[in-house]
Amino acid sequence: MQIYVDGHLVPEEDATVSVFDHGLLYGDGIFEGIRFYSGRVFKLEEHISRLYDSAKAILLDIPISATEMLEAVLTTVRANQLSDGYVRLVVTRGKGSLGLSPKSCPNPSVIIIAANIALYPEEKYSTGLKLITCPTRRPTPASLSPMVKSLNYLNNVMAKIEAQASGADEGLMLNEQGYVTECTGDNLFIIKNGKAFTPHVSAGMLQGITRDTAIEILTELGVAVSQETLTRYDIFTADECFLTGTAAEVIPAVELDQRRIGAGEPGPITRRCVERYREIVNSQGTSI
Q1: Mean pLDDT of successive 10-residue segments in the chain (288 residues)?
Q2: CA distance linking residue 280 with residue 37, whole number of Å
């Protein structure tokens, strides 16, 4: 495997960062997860744009332009001779001294990995995920905007541990007020009486790129979509539920906290969204 590190492609065993990198020491950096299908990178420009927005929000100067970053992603995918897979694009504050101040980090580092990924077993796209509500709450947006995809994912990791310890496939996360935000790494949609609902971004969650694509698909299917303040009750009593994320794609959820959602199996609108999403990602995107 060839990894892009600061302008150079190097073998996996040589792809290293300093133990003094502030991304390692303090979670000081940003990332994007990007998928490519059938020789095309899906929503590449949108992911690059969001990366630079995250960088601006945390006062991180990415050392290459957005155009150069886009080409670096394509170069890395080509070097690994992949037509389907996942890109993890990371920008750290770079090597510095011990201590929080970023002034000791003059050279931010860019790392690009292109590999295969399977976030959930394939059968779950047919049978659906079982969810539990995680005790760990999402941080308030006043502490750090959820729109920043930072390297500090400990909050999400702890929620994932709680979900797995409970025997669930995924965990639902609430904000401090008890309203639904998102799952550990995915946005959430419900279907009720033929209409779709998803938490409003003000609840404290990422406005995902796959989430936006799902809204486009639902609109195309003639399903009205509304961003609302949602509670666990809304999910318990929904007719259907599904999650969206770059790595997860579009995947059904059929149970929350031992309550069956709808019929306890993926519903017709969810199934069509899964099918349509796969049609789109295999026919659109930036050519590798």
Answers
A1: 96 95 96 96 97 97 97 97 96 95 95 91 94 95 88 95 96 96 96 97 89 97 96 98 96 98 97 97 95
A2: 10
Q: Sign of dihedral through CA atoms 81, 87, 93, 94? A: negative
Beta bridge partners of 188: 243
Q: Give 162's Cβ-side CA count (13 Å radius).
A: 19
* CA-closest candidate to residue 42, choices 273, 230, 283, 259: 283
Whole-prediction pTM value? 0.93
Q: Phi-psi category of 38—alpha, beta or left, where left has phi over 0 and alpha has psi -120 to 50?
A: left
When computed from its CA atoms, the radius of gyration of the chain, rounded to whole angstroms, is: 19
Locate 223 and state its tokens: 């399903």
Q: Is the separation of the CB atoms in 250 and 212 below 8 Å?
A: no
Q: Which residues contact 22 (CB under 8 A, 6 or more apart)?
A: 28, 29, 92, 93, 94, 95, 96, 102, 105
Has 149 been annotated as catalytic?
yes
Instruction: Give SS3 for 216.
Output: helix
Q: Please identify which of the residues 149, 160, 192, 195 carries the catalytic annotation.
A: 149
